[in-house]
Automatic annotation (TrEMBL):
PROSITE patterns: DHHC. InterPro entries: Palmitoyltrfase_DHHC (IPR001594), PFA4/ZDH16/20/ERF2-like (IPR039859). Belongs to the DHHC palmitoyltransferase family. It comes from Plasmodiophora brassicae. Residues 88-203 form the Palmitoyltransferase DHHC domain. This is Palmitoyltransferase. It catalyses: L-cysteinyl-[protein] + hexadecanoyl-CoA = S-hexadecanoyl-L-cysteinyl-[protein] + CoA. It is an enzyme of class 2 (transferase).
Amino acid sequence: MGGLSPRAVVTLACIVATAAITGPPIMMTAEYQASKVFMLAISLALYALFAVSLASFVMVMPGTIEKGNEPDVAEPDDTTANGKLGMTCRDCDVIKVPRSHHCSQCGRCILRMNYHCWLLGTCVGAKNLKFYTLALLYACVGSAVSLVITCTNADRSWTSFPGVFAFVVSVAVQFCVFVVAALYLKRHIWLVARNLTWIEYVENLQQWKKLSEKGVQHNWLHKYNHGTWANLQSVFGDGSLLLWILPVSPSKKVHAMADQPNPTATQRLDEMSGGFSNGHQRVEA
């Protein structure tokens, strides 16, 4: 976790090979490249941003709780007399903080854990969520651009069987990458906009369903929801929008904000249902 495991190396190698084989450059002649330099540059830039985002996701620790270095600050109802959290993880024996969950694959408690990405051997957590989301974004947009370039150059592929075969494979792979990346991206943007993790969404789903059955307009309310704009800033940073789409880490301040309960949301939650449960189960992607 937070490094290149053998599985991650193999996965990254497969991704790079797939991008090289199915990307637009292989489908172009010199004449085509000369007339479509702008589209080619955009495509290559998207591939580069995707590669950097994906590598950052793998290399950056998702956020862990280390033994003997647990935070002293916690919510009042979760603390003991010494000001530390009273709940201890039964697996790794660290004092848990709100929104942390133990990952049996990594063997550690992960801050704001979404799930364990087994292909890359690391968790999607508080500190690498931005890179994971950006990798999905650039995979989605990059594959769409590549698909457009490949299809507009289709007439150059029908002169031989190898050309036809390369065209069909490229279109199929690019389309599959686009669909999968778009579905995952949609899910994560929806979660980020509400400051929810996938685990928290699953944990609270039944409670939300009960509220809906009673006719209560819950709007996916939970105590860590600070509003869409603040929630997005907690992941992508509080700087310019340009920095949001670049694979650079946001400040520690915005990370901390995401873990602070919203008093207004907490009060509304108590009025509606008495609060949601805060279990610590592990959920796969």
